[in-house]
């Protein structure tokens, strides 16, 4: 169900976009003509800059260094967070395991009704 909602939202969005483009083509004029032309020129310029490397070498190397620095610190922080919760989770898991093994209880009445060879609390020969 969780993946169904984004799927339906995306499907409705794509359908609305296609219908809008068809309606716009039928009218033979575009909405927000000037704004769209300026955004198209910005997109073309950005593409040229990214593909052909019109950014000066100094900025490209500095950007790579900064990105590497931030990604390193993000990963380091994530590792520290995992280490800080590792010990409490290990202790809690150990306590839960030990407390469940110490309390040897009889099988529940429900279990006794559905499995006849569990009435005395022991498993049968062929069971796991």
Folded structure, characterized:
This protein has 128 residues and is mainly alpha-helical. The protein is built from four helices and no strands. The relative contact order is 0.03. The model has no long low-confidence stretch (mean pLDDT 82).
Features:
128 residues, mainly alpha, 0% strand
Topology:
Elements: H1 4-27, H2 33-52, H3 57-102, H4 109-114
Mean pLDDT: 82
Give a short account of the largest sheet: none
Succession of helices and strands: HHHH
Residue share in β-strands: under 5%
Described by the principal axes of the CA atoms, the overall outline is: flat
What is the β-strand count?
0
CA distance, first residue to last residue: 35 Å
Secondary structure tally, helices? 4
Structural classification: mainly alpha
Q: Helical content, roughly? A: over 70%
Q: Which parts are unreliable, with pLDDT below 50 for 5 consecutive residues or more?
A: none
Tell me the Rg in angstroms.
32 Å
Biased composition (Basic and acidic residues): 103-128
Transmembrane segments: 6-23
Keywords: Membrane, Transmembrane, Transmembrane helix
Region (Disordered): 93-128
What can be said about this structure in brief?
The chain is mostly helical. The chain has helices spanning 4-27, 33-52, 57-102, 109-114.
């Amino acid at each position: 169900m969780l993946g169904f909602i984004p799927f339906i939202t995306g499907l409705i969005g794509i359908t609305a976009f296609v219908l809008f483009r068809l309606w716009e083509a039928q009218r033979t004029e575009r909405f927000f003509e000037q704004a769209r032309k300026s955004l198209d020129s910005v997109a073309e310029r950005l593409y040229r800059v990214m593909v052909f490397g019109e950014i000066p070498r100094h900025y490209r190397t500095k950007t790579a260094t900064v990105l590497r620095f931030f990604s390193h610190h993000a990963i380091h922080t994530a590792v520290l967070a995992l280490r800080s919760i590792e010990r409490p989770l290990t202790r809690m898991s150990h306590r839960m395991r030990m407390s469940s093994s110490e309390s040897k209880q009889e099988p529940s009445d429900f279990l006794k009704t559905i499995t006849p060879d569990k009435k005395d609390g022991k498993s049968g020969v062929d069971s796991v």
